[in-house]
Amino acid sequence: MQNVEYVYTLGMDESEVETYLSRAETGVLSLARDGEAYGVPVHVHYDGEDVFVRLGEHEGSEKLAFLESTTSASLVVYDAGAAESWSVLLRGDLVREGEASATAINERFGPMRIFGETVQDLDAALYRFDAERVTGRRTPLDDATEVVDPEA
To answer: Which of these CATH numbers, 1.10.1330.10, 3.30.70.240, 3.30.1330.30, 2.30.110.10, describes 6-148?
Structure first.
């Protein structure tokens, strides 16, 4: 990695992972079908025990087709700011929850982004991430944080 700047990162323990998950509002959900990957930005909510994603569903959705054929999904939530960066990666199953009220969804998630569909054609669906594996990485939060300049 000569001539490439880098920052050392640390693994997170369970308590740190929970702290960062509680901050997360968005992430990237990755699905797969027949060797083809599909990633989509999603709103996330951590209730102190489970991670939830809210998906807009409509008939003929490519996202739903991938979701139905994915045996193990991954979700990454992260922030890569100048002073601090972190990421939490979850792998496992998405489990569709029962119907949630619009009020409950609005309290937990930001506004739904609509891309070409009509509001009447969409259903807001709530999924719980049944994580089999959770890992987290972060930059150190003290004076030991150092960006290494390969030119120095």
So the answer is: 2.30.110.10
